[in-house]
Amino acid sequence: MLTKRQNLLETIKGGNPDRFVKQYEFMNLIMEAPLGVEFNYGQTWKCHWGITWQWPEGQLGMFPVHDKEHTVIKDITEWKKYVTIPTIETSDEAWAAAIVRANAIDRNEEFVAAFFAPGIFEMTHHLMGMENALMALYEEPEAMHELIEALTQYELDFAKVCIEKIRPDAILHHDDWGSQLSSFISPEMFEEFFLPAYKKIYGFYKANGVELIVHHSDSYAANLVPYMIEMGVDIWQGVMNTNNIPELIKEYGGKISFMGGIHSGLVDFPSWTPEIVAEHVAQACKANGSKYFIPCQTSGLPIESFEGVYETLNKEIDRMSKEMF
């Protein structure tokens, strides 16, 4: 029986996996790194970028507040006036928990996986609001290029420290690039503004021992897959069925793999049942096959909103492995 790591590599290289990869099982995520990301259910708080966040009780996630008072960048042409780049923690003390966790992982069995969020595109609209960020790409491209360059340098500085401290051999990197039906920006605009940034970031990780780039975007982004390949993404996590996954596998399998196919909103909700989960897992596995595809909820972490969903997904993936391998 292959290890989790070996089975993942066989899957994404089109080799001979002996079972389906079960969601995130191949990545041991180091969430203890001092990234500055907070998850405060039922609260309002300000993060290290000065962004005000809210996670209302009863809601499934958090999002920035973008009213006149709380929006960080009030004028993109003066972004340097409003944005203070946070200081990156470099001490062994700050990284102690992450180092202990990373050192305890059997790298023959699992990938030691760093985590980074929010990504470059998300940071632009977290700082100024979605409408303002999208308009600024058209109206003030020079200022947006400057902001993106600064955000990219911050990520590179963090990556340098992260690699030094925990020696990750994988990274799960978040940046949502679309809705369920379309990308937020055109491929041409993505190529101009965001491809260069990610080529730098993912290129740096790859040049420094990171074997596996897993990019999360739970969205439609089929029109951006060629750029994902160019920037070095090995696995697109969060791929929704609105992307026609079988066609993507046929066209791009061997260059990139696809992790998702199970819409979290259709399985992880208050009245979910094991039967509903079983139906969606079977559909995903049968439609997409055993190579270049990892059945997974589209959610960007190995978590659940309603108790029992994640483990039930894993059990059903095991069942499909027995049926299809």
TrEMBL record:
It comes from the Bacteria. One of its GO terms (molecular function) is uroporphyrinogen decarboxylase activity. Residues 64-293 form the Uroporphyrinogen decarboxylase (URO-D) domain. One of its GO terms (biological process) is porphyrin-containing compound biosynthetic process. Signal peptide: none annotated. InterPro entries: Methanogen_methyltrans (IPR052024), UROD/MetE-like_sf (IPR038071), Uroporphyrinogen_deCOase (IPR000257). This is Uroporphyrinogen decarboxylase. It comes from Geosporobacter ferrireducens. The lineage of its organism: Bacteria, Bacillati, Bacillota, Clostridia, Peptostreptococcales.
